[in-house]
């Protein structure tokens, strides 16, 4: 029997993803597998099929990869935590930007980390919503869902004066109702194409780092649409070890390490609203 080419497998997986629009839920309280994307809901269903102008660079829709070749977006979810300030030190030292999908109340209280959020903003990182209390949006009523978004937005506005327009659903979990409401509310939904799974093995940084090596190490990787990497700044070694290793590796391979907004070509004036 002829071997199935890698391309054929990718195509099969992609078509299976379109058929199965139901989100795959993570079993634990962290972000795991991204949900399957539907053709209508994804601007980035497959590499090479990017929406030509990403809705004139305001996006609003679902994305899971960067559109700018040679860019890499490091994303950190579930914080801020007591480790986040150290992460900001590392990012400053290495002169790169990242994106933070923050919660209001998820183990840590947002108001206990006001200074760190102010610094994130001042340092030029992108602050995005990960909802108020990290609930699975697909299980909530429209009222509850709206509350999860506006409560976090209002807290962020209190701290930095503006409300985020980019968001990531907890667990990457959505359904057609969630997607339609989020779009109606004006959010760009950011998933990921590279999952470090750091929450599964928070101390085994090498396993997470291999995800970077695999995605960025291939000879032609730099000529492809960039990758969005998922990890969590609530894990000590993700901050103190993985972040620095990942940034050094990406830079060494010639990538630009930027925010999600920048890797999509969205001007920073469109990352937030009043
Ligand atoms: Zn999360």
From TrEMBL:
GO terms for biological process: carbohydrate metabolic process. PANTHER family: CHITIN DEACETYLASE, CHITIN DEACETYLASE-RELATED. Keywords: Carbohydrate metabolism, Hydrolase, Metal-binding, Signal. Its cofactor is Co(2+). This is NodB homology domain-containing protein. It holds the Pfam family Polysacc_deac_1. Residues 1-21 form the signal peptide. It comes from the Eukaryota. InterPro entries: Glyco_hydro/deAcase_b/a-brl, NODB_dom.
């Amino acid at each position: 029997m002829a071997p199935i080419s890698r391309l054929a497998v990718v195509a099969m997986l992609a078509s299976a993803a379109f058929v199965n629009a139901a989100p795959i839920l993570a079993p634990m309280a962290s972000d795991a597998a991204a949900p399957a994307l539907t053709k209508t809901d994804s601007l980035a269903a497959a590499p090479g099929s990017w929406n030509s102008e990403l809705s004139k660079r305001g996006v609003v829709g679902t994305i899971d990869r960067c559109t700018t070749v040679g860019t890499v977006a490091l994303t950190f979810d579930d914080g801020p935590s007591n480790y986040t300030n150290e992460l900001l030190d590392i990012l400053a030292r290495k002169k790169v930007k990242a994106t933070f999908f923050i919660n209001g109340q998820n183990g840590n209280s947002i108001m206990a980390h006001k200074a760190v959020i102010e610094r994130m903003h001042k340092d030029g990182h992108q602050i995005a919503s990960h909802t108020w209390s990290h609930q699975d949006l697909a299980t909530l009523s429209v009222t509850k869902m709206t509350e999860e978004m506006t409560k976090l937005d209002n807290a962020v506005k209190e701290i930095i004066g503006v409300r985020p327009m980019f968001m990531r659903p907890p667990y990457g979990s959505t359904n057609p109702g969630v997607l339609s409401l989020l779009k109606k509310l004006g959010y760009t939904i950011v998933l990921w194409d590279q999952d470090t799974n750091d929450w599964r093995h928070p101390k085994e940084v090498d396993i997470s780092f291999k995800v970077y090596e695999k995605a960025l190490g291939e000879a032609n990787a730099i000529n492809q649409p960039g990758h969005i990497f998922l990890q969590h700044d609530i894990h000590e070694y993700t901050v103190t070890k993985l972040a620095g290793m990942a940034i050094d590796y990406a830079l060494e391979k010639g990538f630009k390490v930027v925010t999600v907004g920048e890797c999509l070509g969205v001007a920073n004036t469109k990352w937030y609203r009043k």
